[in-house]
Amino acid sequence: MATQITTSVAEAAAALQAGQAVAIPTETVYGLAGDATNEQALAAIFEIKGRPRNHPLIVHCVDAVSAFRLGRDVPHVARNLAARFWPGPLTLVLYKQPQVSATVTAGQGTVAVRVPSHPLTRQLLEQFPAGLAAPSANRYTKVSPTTAQHVAHDLGERVSLILDGGPCEIGIESTIIDCTQDPPVLLRAGYVTVEEIEALLGHPLMMLNAAGTLSPGQQAIHYAPKAQVFLTELVELQRTVDRLTAAERTLLVISPVAPIARGEQLTWWRIPEDHAEFARRIYGFMREADAAGFPRVLIVRPESIGIGRAIIDRLEKAANAAEAR
Ligand code: AMP
Ligand code: MG
Predict the structure, then answer these.
(1) So what's the pLDDT on residue 266?
(2) Ligand 2 center to residue 265 CA distance, Å?
(3) Residue 103 CB less than 6 A away from ligand 1
(4) What is the pLDDT of residue 86?
(5) Is-above-0.85 flag for pTM?
(6) Which of 19, 112, 154, 299 is the most buried (most CB within 10 A)?
(7) Is it true that the peptide bond before 183 is cis, omega within 30 degrees of 0?
(8) Residue 105: CB within 6 Å of ligand 1?
(9) Residue 207: its pLDDT value, please?
(10) 110 Cβ inside 6 Å of ligand 1
(11) pLDDT (0 to 100) of residue 20
């Protein structure tokens, strides 16, 4: 059965009502959605992605009232964060109500919820008061999709319907905050920045360090293109290029300024100065690098502030994949 790309919310709703998994647009990345109360749909999501069953899914809801209905003992801090950032790219982890499927939560006592802002998906969510469970619509550990065409390319005929809402405005995954802990803990950096959250809370957010428990699914290898990704600092860029061995000399460099080539086969793509634009384009860069057949990509890390943190997180995971190969 060929994959169909549609702009019809009614068509997507009908397929979801029938228990199918459907790819949907969100402002962050495309999701692979299923009715959060339908075990057949949930099983299809794990199957299509090739995702291990112990990685929980985020439930997307039309508004905070619906989202908080899935949670138990919802703390004030979660309500404050929701009031400020929803609809938007922020996911909150709460203690779950018993009716939330253990398939969604991977058997944990907590559920992750989010209210997305994409207009087509908001129309769709009106029809699913118990929410749509949706991880990113890519195969496990691969680069997240930010257009309907990326989804079709990655999932092929595994997915029968893609709701096309255009290119994603934000381009990287949501920020995830665990609100079951006090103070709340940042589980994944994203477009909503630590600085913004701390300003709202009035105190520092706890963060996971290397020794901390990772959020399930936050494996060290993720977001990985075929090309080997190497990272460097801007001040180290020229030295890094100068030190390349003969075998490494065919290289794509993604950086704010071009390095000087001294006999290497260098291609240079300019990184946007603006972090938000970098975030929007990062997965596209990785896909274009693969499409062009570059074996290696050297990327200059952005500064570790604001959205820069989320970009660094994705780049480091892509680079870990290169090392693990
Ligand atoms: P994805 O939608 O592909 O970005 O993956 C969803 C991410 O949400 C997973 O990788 C988990 O890290 C996180 N997540 C979902 N549910 C929970 C939960 N109950 N507790 C902690 N993290 C969660
Ligand atoms: Mg993902």
Answers:
(1) 92
(2) 33
(3) no
(4) 98
(5) yes
(6) 112
(7) yes
(8) yes
(9) 82
(10) yes
(11) 98
Architecture of domain 228-324: 3-Layer(aba) Sandwich (3.40)
Mark the ranges of the chain whose per-residue pLDDT is less than 50.
210-211
Domain boundaries, the chain: 4-201, 228-324
Ligand 1 binding pocket mutation candidate from 32, 57, 114, 206 (most atoms within 8 A of CB)? 57
3 lines ligand 1 (CB under 6 A): no
| Confidence (pLDDT) at 1 | 67
Architecture of domain 4-201: Alpha-Beta Complex (3.90)
Ligand 1 pocket, residue 216 CB under 6 Å? yes
- Ligand 1 center from residue 42 Cα (angstroms): 14
